[in-house]
Amino acid sequence: MKYDFLGVIVFGIVLLIGVAVIAAFITVGIFLIRALSRYVKSGNVRKEKSSIKKSLGEVLKDYNS
């Protein structure tokens, strides 16, 4: 009888750890999806940065010549 109770306690602890790990993976997945969607929606900012980088590259090219 004592071993049955101990087995139930161990099973409960393992089950709680498993649920916590699954919840952590789900949370990380949600944050990853949110971050990727924000990155995809920020297309205009990336275009502006690329034009700034091109103009900076041209300035450095002119400076070195």
UniProtKB/TrEMBL annotation:
UniProt key word Transmembrane: yes
Transmembrane portions of the chain: 6-33
Keywords: Membrane, Transmembrane, Transmembrane helix
Descriptive protein name: DUF4083 domain-containing protein
